[in-house]
Design a protein that fits this description.
By secondary structure, the protein is of the alpha+beta class. It has four helices and five strands. It has a single domain, classed as Dynein light chain 2a, cytoplasmic (Beta-Lactamase), CATH 3.30.450. A hairpin with a 5-residue loop joins strand 4 and strand 5. Helix 1 packs antiparallel against helix 4 and helix 2 packs parallel to helix 3. The relative contact order is 0.23.
């Protein structure tokens, strides 16, 4: 399955999903996006950068370094923050880090969606998104 097809499947499978995207944190590139609505190009262009800030911003990296130090864990490329949920006025934004630690899938759902079902479906479709890339 292609990345575009996997993202389209995500939009239909995840409850109340209005957009799904796939971001490469190391390059800062948005690898793919599917949406049921049109969005300003500025928002699309900033999605990858904002996702990178959420997962790899300097303060997040500092926290992860402190966690490792406090636990006596050596740096191994594994990150502590695997999933981030952001609730805006009318949307739920779910960010899932993949098995490839430098890739993150994003799912945007209407606020009325059941968060438990959103997470369950997003996690299950993540396997297909990763396999498609």
């Amino acid at each position: 399955m292609s990345l575009d097809n996997a993202l389209q499947k995500a939009v239909t499978a995840v409850p109340e999903c209005v957009a799904a995207g796939y971001v490469d944190l190391s390059s800062g590139m948005l690898l793919g996006i599917k949406s049921v609505d049109s969005h300003p190009s500025q928002v699309i262009e900033l999605l990858a950068a904002a996702t990178a800030d959420l997962f790899q911003g300097p303060n997040v990296q500092a926290i992860e370094k402190l966690f490792r130090s406090a636990r006596g864990v050596p740096e191994n490329g594994q990150h502590y923050f695997q999933e981030i949920i952001v609730n805006s006025d009318n949307l739920i934004h779910v960010f899932l880090r993949g098995k490839k630690q430098e890739q993150v899938a994003t799912f945007v759902c209407r606020k009325g969606a059941n968060l438990g079902m959103v997470l369950t479906k997003a996690r299950s479709i993540m396997v297909e998104i990763e396999a498609s890339f």
